[in-house]
Amino acid sequence: MLSVGVNGYGTIGKRVADAVRVQPDMRVAGVTKTKPGAEAAIAEERGYPLYTIEQDRLDLFREAGFEPAGLIEELVQESDVIVDATPGGVGETYLPMYREYDTPAIFQGKEDHEMVDASFNARANFGECVGADYLRVVSCNTTGLTRTLAPLVDNYEIEAARATLVRRGGDPDQSERGPINDTIPDPVDIPSHHGPDIGTVLPEIDVTTVALRVPTTLMHVHAVSLTLAASPDPAEVASVLDDESRVFLVPEYLDVEGIAALAEYGRDRGRPRGDMWESCLWDGSLTVDGRELYFIQAVHQESNVVPENIDAIRAITGSMDAADSMQLTDEQLGIGNWPGQLRDAPTPTPPSE
Amino acid sequence: MLSVGVNGYGTIGKRVADAVRVQPDMRVAGVTKTKPGAEAAIAEERGYPLYTIEQDRLDLFREAGFEPAGLIEELVQESDVIVDATPGGVGETYLPMYREYDTPAIFQGKEDHEMVDASFNARANFGECVGADYLRVVSCNTTGLTRTLAPLVDNYEIEAARATLVRRGGDPDQSERGPINDTIPDPVDIPSHHGPDIGTVLPEIDVTTVALRVPTTLMHVHAVSLTLAASPDPAEVASVLDDESRVFLVPEYLDVEGIAALAEYGRDRGRPRGDMWESCLWDGSLTVDGRELYFIQAVHQESNVVPENIDAIRAITGSMDAADSMQLTDEQLGIGNWPGQLRDAPTPTPPSE
Known about the structure:
2 copies of one chain form a homodimer.
Chain A: E1 2-7, H1 11-21, E2 26-32, H2 38-45, E3 50-52, H3 55-63, E4 70-71, H4 72-78, E5 81-84, H5 91-100, E6 105-107, E7 118-120, H6 122-129, E8 134-137, H7 140-155, E9 158-168, E10 184-185, H8 194-198, E11 207-214, E12 220-228, H9 234-242, E13 247-250, H10 259-268, E14 279-282, E15 287-289, E16 292-299, H11 306-317, H12 322-333, H13 341-344
Parallel strand pairs in A: 1-2, 1-5, 2-3, 3-4, 5-6, 6-8, 7-8, 9-11, 13-14
Antiparallel strand pairs in A: 9-12, 10-11, 12-16, 14-16, 15-16
Helix pairs in contact in A: 1-11, 6-11, 11-12
């Protein structure tokens, strides 16, 4: 049983803790929070020992009626693995502490690739990450693209890959962020960092990404175009993608128009927090035009790296191989339990013969 | 002096009327409005004879204190050309009336290409439209893309062209439209109609477009990627585009981050209604990677077809050739009066020798 500490119980951290809790081979050693508040209250309610970052904060928590378990050093010391889900750039400041206590750690996509032994995506490079001391789960956009590109790389010769990323302005709780009524090239430079970042886990493909930020909070949307060496069979492409548990081919009969309807569908299906862990690819957008392959997909920025963090825990501890880990993670979370386009789509009754 | 009637004094029509007014070779014969209100009041204030569509409406206008000039049939009869700026699909219902009075007419992009003699873009196919009876100015997205693609087609061999269109949800006054907090593949099918529509004016290039609708009102944004037969010189590409009066290469030193800042810049420069008639291409986005050429541009959906409507009036009447018409239109409107990236950008002082 692996003891997992979660440093930073925020958007990603709280989801990782909940995902750890339902795995049979791991438990939540504790979580850290810098301030009391609603998320800290949820952590206590779920029985996650609540740590904080310095002595003064312990008093702050106690005054607010919480019962903090102690300071982060203790959590790092007693954890087999730390998942660092602190804000971008903050993870780096904790690296010396993780080193001091010899605790392997998994960072998130906003930390530098150079800081860790390897960047991680379960589908792309689990094997290369086994036994590392420090890993970095690539960002939500990179994870979302890697999940659809990796199986295509396995099955086709791809000459060029391009993606326009229509990024959400902020998460639903970041209501102070913009933009309002704006579409912002962010960055205006091409490629954005996402394309090169895919190369840290899937070096077989060179992706040029262009990123724009818009006034939404629910999901990122990617318009992807690939040039293949030869014209692919569209049905075969759909089948290759549908075989991936972490790709949801959104069937046309669901009439899911956009990310708002996708998010609603996730909530209706009882997903925790409505989370959409999979890359959600509109089946109706999958288009082959000669050697060009096009599709549009949505990526839930709050949750899609969560299963990768779980798999990264097993990779860094060397406790399971890629296939077993991904299958177990998927089963425990309920990933891939969508009505499949190819599996379950209602078949029109053939005319009687 | 050409007498121009504007049927439909709305978002496009009112701008076309104002643009006609400042041309030395044409005058506004009148405009039509179906209902009294703020736009009708502006029309009267500017001295545009105000027509309406049926007898009952005349009374409606009179009761509201307006002095309507008459019914649309009279306007069509006395106009040398009609610019039909009625809502999409409505133009078609007026075609029999234009025919009856033998008045040539210019429709907007939402009408069918098949309905007219030719679709029109001044830069791409002015010559082919001279003397036609019925023209259609292609839509704002198509116009915006055609303006940047036509000069590239003239100068380079383009093997493939792709564009992701991040479309505004509605115009600033269409506050009842969505989306709110959504990114919607619209259509989910690839290509969207825009790519094929470019072919109606610029058949030399085959563009695959993917369209998404987002919660903005100010401008469309296009992420464009082209595969050329050979790697182009980036400075030459910039120069080719900068030579186009209807392409504004947005210089980096303006620090214009997105469409909101672009719109603000247009307002600050005293443009009527803040209109940005040009395709606004972020110079910082212009990127060459081998044979791939990338850029991001913004298109002001309310105004960018206005100069094309003016040129179409001269094409349909055969009163001027393309170069003269475009130059006159540009001069009278003030198009291309931006600080040029290549012309006026502050040059860093070279180190003293």
